């Protein structure tokens, strides 16, 4: 027999195995940080926080340098991830329960609190393909803002859920399972996530691990706080040892789950994603809070600027993503939905989603996605001191529409990532075309707009703000 014939024979003999290998459904592990800004990992530019597990993940996968959360605050970003739809389309546009600003200049729309049951969540869609799903950590999609009947992850297609136990300043206040009073919540949740991997190793699964860190209260484990206090450099952008300790604990938790995947022989068949639900919190009531810094980006959580929505993002799809590559294509939270479904082989054309599958850029990080622009819509006031806005990014350009002034600002992110120079006046043509794309999108998704507030009262509004500050 000739050599070529032998090779063909061998290939034919093993082809059922090859087919199986190709068709084996990957597991999904999605890590979602809470309020971690764009420069919040060492591999994304922190000069204090150490994140060796996530940095290793970045070396093994694709680092997205223009990744965005779907909103500048928690709940809408989470709703977008889990439904694949823009928060504006869901009318779920603020953190639940949101801000009450009865005397502000604009009246905020009557928005949707809570994830509605007619939405097909990622867990429900994956169930059709034989997946089991677990939610560990922060959900933030209950109508009341806290726990409530019928709106838990298990009421939205998840098979298993673990919430944070009773805690104060991120430390348990009583015994919970094998953890005791004084233990750190992230360690508890990591142990619960590891249990999911150990118990579900034989089925395709989706593990959604949503951290409570580094959200406020900014309070880390004492030994880590001491360690980081000694590492802060003069003039470094990151100066808060508690925040650093929280990021460190988050990274350790990621390491525990990745270790469990390795130990169970699942690492080569598990897609691992890490990202954040919004930018780092940098100010409260208009004043810097000293928690973190998203520079070179402008501002942070709650604001219209890049610091509010640009987040670190890493995706490792074993055997597909080229190790240690960067992808500069703009991507946004809703994209995970279509991405996971494509990877799992679910093709339900009926699902109306706003995200696109990232599979093309995971195969080739230099590729471009077929998408004209991405959008944000936050018709709300935020405690940081920011007002209602919408924004659009198309390639290098970003336009912000501020509702209070009904004015637009235009930035070129390539030459000006910090959004320092408003080019709207010198480039009216670009501003006009971007504004028209934004308007078209708002009407397409049925975005709710703020209106003039008949009860607007500057004095009473300041009084409300002053009371909130005191609390
Ligand atoms: Ca958040």
Question: What secondary-structure arrangement, pairings included, does this model have?
Answer:
Blueprint: H1 3-23, E1 27-33, H2 52-60, E2 62-68, H3 74-83, H4 87-90, E3 106-107, H5 122-127, E4 132-137, E5 160-162, E6 167-168, E7 171-172, H6 185-199, E8 205-210, H7 222-229, H8 241-263, E9 270-276, E10 283-284, E11 287-288, H9 306-309, E12 310-316, E13 325-327, E14 331-332, H10 335-344, H11 359-363, E15 374-378, E16 389-394, E17 397-402, E18 407-412, H12 428-445, E19 451-452, H13 458-470
Parallel strand pairs: 1-8, 1-9, 2-13, 2-14, 4-5, 4-8
Antiparallel strand pairs: 2-12, 3-19, 6-7, 9-12, 10-11, 15-16, 16-17, 17-18
Helix pairs in contact: 6-8, 7-8
The chain binds calcium ion.
Report on the architecture of this protein:
The chain is α/β, with parallel strands linked by helices. The chain has two domains: about 25-370, Alkaline Phosphatase, subunit A, CATH 3.40.720; about 375-470, Arylsulfatase, C-terminal domain (2-Layer Sandwich), CATH 3.30.1120.10. It is built from 13 helices and 19 strands. The strands form five sheets. Strands 1, 2, 4, 5, 8, 9, 12, 13 and 14 form a nine-stranded mixed β-sheet that branches. It has a four-stranded antiparallel β-sheet with strand order 15-16-17-18, with helices on one face. A hairpin with a 2-residue loop joins strand 10 (about 285) and strand 11. The longest helix is centred in the middle third of the chain and has 23 residues, at about 240-265. The N and C termini lie far apart (about 85 Å). The structure holds calcium ion. Calcium ion binds near residues 34, 277 and 278.
